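Hey all, quick one. A colleague (J.T.) asked me to put the adenosine-5'-diphosphate job into the tracker so the inputs and the structure tokens live in one place instead of scattered across chat threads. No bug as far as I know, just bookkeeping. Sequence used:
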Amino acid sequence: MRVLFCASEIFGHAKSGGLADVGYSLPQALIEHAQMISVMPFYAFMDKTLYQKSDIKFSVNLGGIEYKISIYESTADNIKTYFIYSSILSYTEHMYGDKSGEYANNDIRFGIFCAAIVELALILKVDIIHANDWHTALVPLFVKRANLAIKTIFTIHNLAYQGVFEKNSLGRLGIEECYFHMDTLEFYGKINFLKAGIIFSDAITTVSPTYAKEIVTEEFGCGLEGLLYAHRDKLFGILNGIDNTIFNPETDSALWHNYTAQTLQKKYENKKLLLREVGLKDDKKPLFIMISRLVHQKGFDLLIESLSAFLKEDVNFLLLANGSDIYEKALEPFAAEYKNFKLLSGYDEAFSHRIYAAGDFLLMPSLFEPCGLNQMIAARYGTIPLVHSVGGLSDSVHEKKKTCIRGVVFSKPTKKALLLAIKRALKLREEKKKFNEIISFNMNCDFSFKKSALAYYELYKKVLS
Ligand code: ADP
């Protein structure tokens, strides 16, 4: 079975969030079941000298225009990965947009990507294309429209991002007017890429069982709940995992001191060094951390509302985040007023590992969370997650049950519930024995993609049968 796994970002090449982590670790975990090949765009910020130029060359025609495609390759990490280079797709400084918003031509950029994926799939003679999120959502449409003998799986990592564009995109993408219909791509007078993935794929998956149930409801469906409900027979929730090799405190070269559940004193040494590095005082205080995109989804409104009361507790709080200027501006006055709060803006992979290693608690007050990887990474580094019980967080973090992961959980996204959860976390920290037991328990949990990869493989077999 040959599977072409396509995503707009893959860890090691380009990453803005969890999609890249999954784009790396899921195909890796599937290698033992299927012949996996990956494909992503080649972006301008990638170093051409690290990739080989492929002999494969073709062009794709969208709306009467020929777009030349060249391909780069890499065989690092046991998986052959192809990188689609087209001048329009690849010229931008970032993947999707900059501080002033999303790039206006993302429709055509990712339309080219989708058309190129289908062409590549034919050249490589794959049985299945596994598409991920809106950037690849036109693939199932292009496959069905051309009546190709390729099956498609479409995974929704975050329903909030749908790829919605003005109607005139249709012509530019060479998509016929008959697809501008409520039952296909039309979405309140515009076109919606994600709808194409939902409607034309052979199976849809999303990244946790709870999120699969949530997205067919008005509260979490982002306007697509009706459509998803109509397609519920082919919708499956499969929990994400993380790569145990990348996220391993025992071997992680980003840390000052490597450690295991048996050598937690070394975790504490990491904490002391990190506090010194960022200028926070008193390593005896519990250190709360948050590593996140700075967006509404992650619960920043709730956090900001609760921040004064939280920072009056005997805690340190370190936040590494990048994204919205509005939230950054709203958080800055707190960082100026409270000496126990450090706000670091930016994206830094290695530094994030040091923060995971140093923390006592990870805050995740997300309003919705398709799966969430932060809680798994934190648990692996012995940092206890404190989460709002929603989506994948309610599938993976438990306060009462002794199942992976153990943490502190609140069920209503209110200031009162969050502050009470913080109080419970502080109380837990004082119960030294229990606190350390939970840390060790979490560090020994299996977060790998092994089990979930098997579920994907079963689904691959099902769509092929
Ligand atoms: P999402 O994909 O919604 O951003 P996930 O929890 O699925 O959230 O995955 C987030 C991933 O991105 C994790 O690997 C996390 O450590 C990483 N990450 C998020 N923000 C930053 C940042 N500012 N710097 C470094 N890594 C970050």
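Adding what we noticed when we looked at it: The pocket of adenosine-5'-diphosphate is lined by residues 17-19, 21, 291-293, 320-322, 347-349, 352, 371-374, 377 (CB under 6 Å). Residues 49 and 72 are 10 Å apart (CA to CA).
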